From TrEMBL:
Protein name, per record: INLR1 protein
Gene coding for it: Ifnlr1
GO molecular function: cytokine receptor activity
InterPro entries with a match to the protein in the record: FN3_dom (IPR003961), FN3_sf (IPR036116), Ig-like_fold (IPR013783), Interferon/interleukin_rcp_dom (IPR015373), Type-II_Cytokine-TF_Rcpt (IPR050650)
Limits of the Fibronectin type-III domain: 8-103
Length: 204
């Protein structure tokens, strides 16, 4: 009749990855294959007020993206999850507290280049959730000749800025790479993006 002793989810973790805040977990031991999960969260400024997360109710997957459900990016939150199967419910399991502002982990930006006659226009796009676009993201850009260790650095551009590089004096294969920056409690940065290389002022 669907009444089974459902064991609670395991390894319940609130983590930040690629600009998102995500709750992850593993199924409890012996969970049926069609078990589902429901997630709620609470803020440190309103404890014991567990809020529903509409897009993470009775879900089959073992993660829930909470980024745009968070009411305040600066207040610590924690989440909890329970398993459901038929009429059975597992106990809730809670994560630790985290806040987006100080715990966010960044992903490298994606570069798009337009090569002009004597310049390159570089635009960096960030895989940001819409709800955090108002925060002040920046990026650093490196330019170097393929095979060289010497990099020219362009530092601290705002996310929506386009960087124009004068290429009049450059000839040959040049590569560009960028990383995302975010100033919270301390300065955070992502890894550098995969290099994008272009042939400049090629005669022939």
């Amino acid at each position: 009749s669907g009444h089974v002793q459902l064991l609670p989810p395991q390894n319940v973790t609130l983590l930040s990855k690629d600009f998102a805040m995500i709750l992850t977990w593993a199924p409890g031991a012996g969970s049926p294959p069609d078990v589902t999960y429901t997630v709620r969260y609470e803020s440190q400024d309103r404890l014991d007020k567990w809020k529903k997360v509409p897009h993470c109710k009775n879900i089959p997957r073992t993660f829930c993206n909470l980024t745009c459900a968070l009411p305040n990016l600066y207040v610590k939150v924690r989440a909890r999850v329970k398993a459901l199967w038929g009429r059975s419910r597992s106990p809730w399991v809670k994560s630790h507290f985290k806040d987006y502002y100080s715990d966010v982990e960044l992903a490298p930006p994606v570069l798009s280049l337009s090569v002009r006659d004597r310049s390159i226009l570089v635009r960096a796009s960030f895989p940001l959730p819409t709800c955090v676009e108002s925060l002040t993201w920046k990026y650093d850009l490196n330019l170097w000749e393929a095979g060289s260790e010497v990099k020219k650095k362009y530092e601290g551009y705002f996310r929506k800025d386009t960087v124009t590089i004068n290429t009049t004096a450059l000839r040959g294969n040049y590569c560009l790479s960028a990383r995302a920056l975010f100033e919270s409690i301390n300065l955070k940065h992502s890894e550098f993006s995969q290099p994008v290389c272009v042939l400049l002022n090629h005669k022939g």
